[in-house]
Amino acid sequence: MSRAGTPTDNPVNESLNGWIKEELFIDFDLKHCEDVSNLIKLYIDYYNNERPSY
Fold it and tell me: How many domains does the structure of the chain reveal?
């Protein structure tokens, strides 16, 4: 468990949470919990396997 207010303790999780808050709820019209779950799974797959990393 990280300390409150220290996003550097777990940057991968903080990055995903930031993406969810900033883009997921703004760019997509999500009606059900399953929609959110499926979209997060797709994003994680993209992040791990398809995105260009330099």
Answer: 1
- 35 is a domain residue: yes
pTM: 0.55
Helices and strands in the chain: count of H runs, count of E runs: 3, 0
- Read off the tokens for 52: 């260009």
Q: Which helix (H) or strand (E) holds 40?
A: helix 33-49
Q: Measured between alpha carbons, how far is 5 from 26 in angstroms, rounded to an integer?
A: 24
Q: Is there a domain that residue 19 lies in?
A: no
**What sign has the CA pseudo-torsion 28, 33, 36, 38?**
negative
The predicted-structure confidence for 2-49, as pLDDT tens digits, reads as follows: 567 666 667 777 777 787 777 777 777 778 888 888 888 988 888 788
Q: Which two tokens stand for residue 40?
A: 């997060």
